[in-house]
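MOLECULE: protein
FOLLOWS: sequence and fold
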Amino acid sequence: MAIIPFDDRDGSIWLDGRMVPWRDAKIHVLTHGLHYASSVFEGERVYNGRVFKLREHSERLIRSAEILGFKIPFTVDEIDAATEAVIAANNIVDGYVRPVAWCGSEMMGVGAQHNTVHLAIATWVWPSYFSPEAKLKGIRLQTSAWARPAPNTAPVHSKAAGLYMICTMSKHAAEAAGYHDAMMLDYRGQIAEATGANIFLVIDGKLHTPTPDCFLDGITRRTVMDLARAKGIEVIERAIRPTELADATEVFLTGTAAEVTPVGEIDHYRFTPGRITETLMDAYAAEVRRPAVATAAE
């Protein structure tokens, strides 16, 4: 199947306050965000024409930029409205949304205090992140040679573009070795996450997940934790050593793109998607498609 490049598609992209033809949404090669990673983004899913937890995503986008030291020139309400507009303009029912903010090209150097800040929002149809066959039996992960950085070495709580460089390198290495994705340890050697999703382990019927002190506390992660507690499943956030994979009977990933994805293998450890994973897969699938509750103001 031929790949359609993302810079050569039909449709519209919202760029700095206006809708522009898809192919005209461009930046200059001397943009600061390209050279020095002064860029943040979000990943959002559209279900039945509505972004799941749009407000939380828009708030996190602004917060991510503030952590990097720049201010997005649009409010949360304006970003929400722009997102809904671009979804409607592209007739998206079920898909993906990518807002991205970056510093422009007024200054070219490490310092960019006077650069303008830009915001674009694109959306497209996107099926499951992993193939249905892989999800049914659980995807295969390989431990990455790269580690998530310490909080005093990188802006770990920002969804910053620069932090994903080691994720790309890790995923490429894993795929080259025949795996679907990589599991990343943190700077202490503890389990952190996958390259674009958080990780959960089922041990003795309880749900264990790493404390997000050096990586993103995902919106999907928090949603699944709430769903688990509502189902009477105990959730424990703690430091988890890689050797504890031997104690886990089920493992799964959570993320906007990954949703709830079972893991069947991490290195030499094997797992079987079971009752808790299936319960939370079903609960999350129902939650994201639950009709929005109208407020009195509406």
About this structure: Residues 54-68 form the longest helix (15 residues). The chain has seven helices and 16 strands. The longest strand covers residues 139-148.
